[in-house]
Amino acid sequence: MENKKVLKSGEFLVEEINAADIFIPEEFDEEQKMIAQSCSDFLEAEVYPIITDLEKGNRELMKQVLKKSGELGLMGISVPEEFGGFGQSFVTQMLVAEISGAGFSFSVAFMAHCGIGTLPIVYYGNEEQRSRYIPKLAAGELLGAYCLTEPGAGSDANSGKTNATLSADGKYYILNGQKMWITNAGFADTQIVFAKIDNDRVLSAFIVESAFPGVVIGPDEHKMGIKGSSTAQIYYNDVKVPVENLLGKRGEGFRIALSILHMGRIKLGANVVGAAKKTITDSVKYANERKQFGVLISSFGAIKHKLASQVIKLFASESAVYRVSKDIDDLIGKLKIDCGDTGRATIEAISHYAVEAAILKVYGSEMLDFVADEAVQVHGGMGYSTEMDVERGYRDSRINRIFEGTNEINRLLVVDTAMKRARKGDFDLFGKAEKLYNELDKISREEVKGEEYFKEKSGYISNFKKVILICIHAAVRKFEKGLIHEQEILNNIADMMIETYVSDSLALRIEKLNSLKDDIAVYKDILDVNIYDTAEIIRKSAYDAVFSLDLNEDACAVVKAIETLTKVKGVNVKSARRRIADKLIEDNIYKF
Ligand SMILES: Cc1cc2nc3c(=O)[nH]c(=O)nc-3n(C[C@H](O)[C@H](O)[C@H](O)COP(=O)(O)OP(=O)(O)OC[C@H]3O[C@@H](n4cnc5c(N)ncnc54)[C@H](O)[C@@H]3O)c2cc1C
Question: Ligand 1 within 6 A of 224 CB?
Answer without folding.
Answer: no
